[in-house]
């Protein structure tokens, strides 16, 4: 999709190393994240609140604004209530921290049907772990760890965004 062309080019240049990818994502400002936020705002199903993980503050803020829903930074700030929460991260890696967050969200009376990531590291297993909990993962780009380094996923990429 045209909205993510610049983002894909930025990520492609940073695939040299994991550290470079993290550095490049950390350099992105609100303007850089806006096309990704627009894509998520247009294509994701309805939700009642957004929790932005620390690596996705600007992205989560833009999505929450576009959808007119509140933005939170932790499950404890949700308070007791109900509704569906979208968790956003810049880079989805291992699913264990998100599994813990999902449990906290459920204890607060909310549901977590979906996690949205700018980049999913497919070898890290988060999609499988979250899927076992009934949580769908949506990522703009998928990156695989290979012996030669990081590459865009080619095996069975999730093409929901295209």
Structural commentary:
This protein has one domain: Rossmann fold. It has 162 residues and is an alpha/beta fold. The longest helix is centred in the N-terminal third of the chain and has 14 residues. Strands 2-1-3-4-5-6 form a six-stranded mixed sheet, sandwiched between helices. It has six helices and six strands, in the order αααβαββαβαββ. It is globular and about 45 Å long.
What is the gist of this entry?
The protein is 40% helix and 25% strand. By secondary structure, it is of the alpha/beta class.
Share of β-strand residues: 25-35%
CATH top-level class: Alpha Beta
Helix content percent band: 25-40%
CATH topology name, in short, is: Rossmann fold
Separation of the first and last Cα atoms? 5 Å
Topology at a glance:
Elements: H1 5-14, H2 18-27, H3 30-43, E1 49-52, H4 57-67, E2 71-72, E3 84-92, H5 96-107, E4 111-121, H6 126-132, E5 136-146, E6 149-152
Parallel strand pairs: 1-2, 1-3, 3-4, 4-5
Antiparallel strand pairs: 5-6
Helix pairs in contact: 1-2, 3-4
Characteristics:
globular; 162 residues; single chain; 40% helix; alpha/beta
